[in-house]
Amino acid sequence: MSKRIIIDPVTRIEGHAKISIFLDDAGNVSDAEFHVVEFRGFEKFCEGRPYTEMPGITQRICGICPVSHTLASAKAGDALMAVNIPPAADKLRRLLNLGQIIQSHALSFFHLSAPDFLLGWDTAPAQRNVFGLIAANKELARAGIRLRQFGQEIIQVLGDKKIHPAWAVPGGVRSALSDEGRAKIRAWLPEAFATTKVAFELWKKTMETHQREIQIFGNFPSLFMGLVAADGTWEHHGGKLRFTDSSGSIIADRLDALNYLDFIGESVQGNSYLKSPYYKPLGFPAGIYRVGPLARLNICQQMGVPQADAELKKFKKLGHGAVTSSFLYHYARLIEILACIEYVERYMDDPELSSDYLRADAGINNLRAVGVSEAPRGTLFHDYTVDRNGLLQKVNLIVATGQNNLAMNQTVAQIARHYVRGNEIPEPMLNRVEHGIRCYDPCLSCSTHAVGQMPLRVQLIAPDGSVLNEAMRG
Amino acid sequence: MAVKTLTIDGRPITAEEGATVLQAATEAGIKIPTLCHLEGVYDVGACRLCIVEITGTTKLLPACTTKVSEGMEVQTQTERLRNYRRMILELLFAERNHVCAVCVSNGHCELQTLAYSQGMEHIRYDYTFPKWNVDTTHRLFGMDHNRCVLCTRCVRACWHIEGAGTKNIAGRGATSKIITDLNQPWGDSDSCTECGKCVMACPTGALFQKGSTVGEMVHDRDKLEFIVTAREKKQWVAAD
Ligand code: SF4
Ligand code: SF4
Ligand code: FES
């Protein structure tokens, strides 16, 4: 029998996390488990409901990425009706997703992660947060907050919940981009570009000073999965699924999300609540894959926009084939922010976004459909089975955080291995493990808490199950 | 026609003989909350939201089915009435499954509007969470029993305005259910003319156009009044 350390959140917030670190008999870390509590009962709630309500229902299951759920759900709806949505609707949904990626990545980078690498790991937790960042670098903190507002503004202009609940609907979208909205978004662009410039400079310095973190924060071979365009360009809403390995080779391509059960298996880990997906043909654990910004950049050949493409070239040089360090999720996030802003800029000159032909109409033409979209954190699947009248019989959602679960486990284990010695629970380990999880920007209320750290409870348990040591934090 | 004089909330009012208290009040610009009342069809007094106090009787009477009489003294806004109205609304919410945030009628729902206007802040009764189904077998329309308040406006619109007699009510009490024909799926109904008048009549998100998503279902009740006025008075005037 081996010992295990359990890190458990003290406050039971919805979507909380718990970490177990397994020690072998010699007291070394052998493995780790990051437990995510899924929102349960949700699938049951949907059963019997018309599929047309799903974009509205699913956007309420997650307060952190409602836009992503709405988009995946609307796409599943399109597929149930077997329609091609009007081109303007596709562009508008994309614009919404760009806004969502910008705001989510800005939150992750500036509010949640930058305090760690700017203020230093061992700064007191009370300062190592966005307020500490404001004190240390007011301009940067402000710019980050503003960049997030820019993304939120796009969402508000298009699909604000109060104005247009469930704006993305099966068959298209409910309203176009208004001239006023276009002007608003356009006005933000110079500032948004300027902020990314500052962020890139900051990041370059961070990489120089954080070589150790690049080495040990989740640096391991794995597969990468995400959507990619037919010509290998970065995608976030259309395209097909691709898997690459850590040498950068494509191992599966042009996969249709509808058949995800053929290539994604779900293993249940120990006493984890979450099913951990893996690439089926390689089996478990060889089929571990990562999703999200790092994966999307690894699987694509180009971003499709000039400034982000220049950065992508530099990014790709950090790996041999694929970039394998999860610490570089941060870098990937910045590149995606830049790409998103460039794409938004393009859309601002596209008259089609004002079109009033926005919605295709049809009855039920498929009894099962899978909607897939790239959420900021990674690929999101909505799998719906309906009866002939469009009432849901079965719902299955695969979220990004779930798909990254196995990689998060490895990341925690890798970091812990460097910091756990004997029965001690060192504070530096907690800070770094917390950050290791943050690299994936998991969608947990506790991890996105802008102020302060994740509340953690650490238990050191002997092989016989008795608690040797306990540390509380938060 | 004979004219009756009465007071509503202390205001002297005249009304035609045979008029209801609700009609007299509306004519005088006094607003009484209603739910099962629908312009264009007869009243049944099903929801009891329009209850009023009348001097000389301790019973609370529905304004929509109570006729005016000479010297009548009507109160529409007492504390007692407000309490009962709130209670009725709370019971309606507790009786079925109303999830406004994801409802097709969110923002355009008479029940929801009433709850706001009557100051319903929370529901003091336990939700019953009954199991009701959604019928989307019809080509054009859907019926979600979870959101039905059993006001029978759809039934009356179907019988009285369209004359098809498709919609009906079956069962008793809270387990009553709006049915089509002989309690069969709406899509199998022989009598339904697909006119959609029941959908227009519905105060809630129970009846909806298929394909509607959150907050998209706006019931066009004025159209019903327009048809009835046109038929009965030969006047084709759009309601304002
Ligand atoms: S019918 Fe009205 S009260 Fe009921 S859920 Fe819908 S909006 Fe809310
Ligand atoms: S379906 Fe609508 S109109 Fe018919 S009884 Fe129910 S709530 Fe009233
Ligand atoms: S409106 Fe009078 S009882 Fe319903």
Brief write-up:
The complex is a heterodimer of chains A (474) and B (240). Chain A has 15 helices and 16 strands.
Plain-language structure description:
The complex is a heterodimer of chains A (474) and B (240). Chain A is built from 15 helices and 16 strands. By secondary structure, chain A is α+β, with helices and mostly antiparallel strands. In chain A, α6 runs antiparallel to α7, α7 packs antiparallel against α12 and α10 crosses α12. The longest helix of chain A has 33 residues. The two termini of chain A are 30 Å apart. In chain A, 53% of the residues are buried. Chain B has two domains: 75 residues, Ubiquitin-like (UB roll), CATH 3.10.20; 130 residues, Alpha-Beta Plaits (2-Layer Sandwich). Chain B has a five-stranded mixed beta sheet with strand order 2-1-5-3-4, covered by helices on one side. Chain B has a three-stranded antiparallel beta sheet with strand order 6-7-10. In chain B, β8 and β9 form a beta hairpin. Chain B is globular and about 55 Å long. The mean pLDDT of chain B is 94. The complex binds iron/sulfur cluster (2 copies) and FE2/S2 (inorganic) cluster (FES). One iron/sulfur cluster binds next to α4 of chain B. The site of one iron/sulfur cluster has 12 residues of chain B, from α3.
Task: Summarize the helices and strands and which ones pair or pack.
The complex is a heterodimer of chains A (474) and B (240).
Chain A: E1 3-7, E2 17-23, E3 29-36, H1 42-46, H2 54-58, H3 66-81, H4 87-119, H5 130-136, H6 138-159, E4 168-169, E5 172-173, H7 179-209, H8 211-216, E6 223-228, E7 240-244, E8 250-255, H9 260-263, E9 264-268, E10 275-279, E11 289-290, H10 293-299, H11 306-316, H12 329-348, E12 368-375, E13 378-386, E14 392-398, H13 400-403, H14 405-419, H15 427-438, E15 456-461, E16 467-473
Parallel strand pairs in A: 6-11
Antiparallel strand pairs in A: 1-2, 1-15, 2-3, 4-5, 6-7, 7-8, 9-10, 12-13, 13-14, 15-16
Chain B: E1 3-8, E2 11-16, H1 21-27, E3 51-54, E4 60-62, E5 73-75, H2 79-95, H3 110-117, E6 134-135, E7 141-144, H4 153-162, E8 167-170, E9 177-180, H5 197-201, E10 207-209, H6 221-233
Parallel strand pairs in B: 1-5
Antiparallel strand pairs in B: 1-2, 3-4, 3-5, 6-7, 7-10, 8-9
The complex binds iron/sulfur cluster (SF4) (2 copies) and FE2/S2 (inorganic) cluster.
